[in-house]
Amino acid sequence: MKQQIILKFNIQFELWDVGGSKQNTFNWQQYYQNSSAIIFVVDASNLFDSKMDESKQCFKQVVENTNEKSKIIVFANKQDLPQAMNTSEIYELLDLSNVSNRDVKIFESSTKNQKGMLAGIQYLYASVTNQ
User: Where on the tree of life does the source sit, at the highest rank (predicted)?
Assistant: First the structure.
């Protein structure tokens, strides 16, 4: 598990890269249980059904086990690749129409060219500081 602390907009973000493999997901709760916000990253270019189903199950676990006041954003990552799913497709994949107890915002992103990353962090900042 990788930890990184970032100071941005006069606020401290403590980030944990916990990975999505099944062997890591049982540890997730200790990291997100008391979080103000969750950033969930989906590989939007991974069109294999098993990986997408795994993402859906992991996201469901996060939603069910976090405080309802926690803000959640989803980065639909790897938008620099032509086969990447758009936000509507990710919305369907994660079954967000059934998440009624909180607002979840999706951002198309690419860590390679930093597309969408700042917009997502700015949205989180505004959401968390307005609680």
Answer: Eukaryota
- What gap in Å lies between CA 31 and CA 4, rounded to an integer? 13
CATH number for 2-129 (one of 3.40.50.300, 3.40.710.10, 2.40.50.140, 3.40.50.150): it is: 3.40.50.300
* pLDDT tens per residue across all 131 residues of the chain: 455 555 566 666 666 666 655 555 556 667 677 778 888 898 998 766 667 788 888 888 888 888 888 889 999 999 999 999 999 999 998 999 888 888 899 999 998 998 988 899 889 888 888 75
Per DSSP, 97 falls in state G
